[in-house]
């Protein structure tokens, strides 16, 4: 069988739902840990039908929990807090595997997970939370950053004020729709935490 570029797992014509479940977990784990992974930056859609590309920061294979980083001033934060339904779409072009994930999102501004995510970030990443909030109107092209931080890494002291704008988006995956494209015949399966079903593509 052919092997996945990202995971090294054989993926040509799986025959069991357990194999599909393992493939999903392997792909999401690889995506969270390797920026070169095809699924590192999936599309995340909120209940208002708005969608954006986000970087997958972590995946817990036991609980099927995804972690993303966000600015608390982003409009999507209010949307998620009002209606936590989330859709996540990832595609591996080389392996021809599509994942459509449905779940429930929650925003955590403080606590162990948010604090750990902040501490694991470098100051270039933290710098993004120093500027204007996402969606603020401007009369010229702008990064939103204070001018003194354009292309410059702030110090620990300078970036600390940005912590109040930082949060994590946790997505509890309730359902995974796995779709494999193949010239010999496509295959598709839908899995939940404790069940699964092969379905017609």
Automatic annotation (TrEMBL):
<dbReference type="InterPro" id="IPR012349">
    <property type="entry name" value="Split_barrel_FMN-bd"/>
</dbReference>
<feature type="domain" description="Pyridoxamine 5'-phosphate oxidase Alr4036 family FMN-binding">
    <location>
        <begin position="35"/>
        <end position="107"/>
    </location>
</feature>
<protein>
    <submittedName>
        <fullName>General stress protein 26</fullName>
    </submittedName>
</protein>
<dbReference type="Pfam" id="PF12766">
    <property type="entry name" value="Pyridox_oxase_2"/>
</dbReference>
<dbReference type="InterPro" id="IPR024624">
    <property type="entry name" value="Pyridox_Oxase_Alr4036_FMN-bd"/>
</dbReference>
